[in-house]
Amino acid sequence: MSQSLNKIYIHIIFSTKNREDLLPEKNLNEIHSYIGGIINQNLCKSIIIGGTANHIHILCELTSTVSTAMLLQEIKRSSSKWIKRAYPQHPNFAWQNGYAAFSVSQSKVDTVTNYIQNQKEHHTKKSFKEELVEFLKNYKIEYKEEYLWS
């Protein structure tokens, strides 16, 4: 084959440092749009971004030239700098060190999109911790509880 072709959907989840509620609800759309721009500038395709005051969900297409780790490093670095400038009331804003990333099949893109769209409603019933542990269990990812929340 003379060209590289791929379509890799990925669902990424990460939180603010110490899961603090630092992302004001009234500014979530602006923050999500900014992060979408970072994703698109890195040659990936942002599909939907959502979340709450303490965490972010991203569904995007990963390009063949950018790794998940590289994309997350750029998302966190650029958005953290921007958030500190745009919201001076949070001069020490930071994202958590880690992240969770899950593959998504083409047939589940609409399901994941709806899930991310309904984060506010979803979190009236389940905390971020409960949500993340459920994802880890569903994907059969082994983890150590003591490192998950540090």
From TrEMBL:
Residues 5-119 form the Transposase IS200-like domain. SMART domains: Y1_Tnp. Pfam families: Y1_Tnp. NCBIfam families: transpos_IS200. This is Transposase IS200-like domain-containing protein. The lineage of its organism: Bacteria, Pseudomonadati, Bacteroidota, Bacteroidia, Bacteroidales.
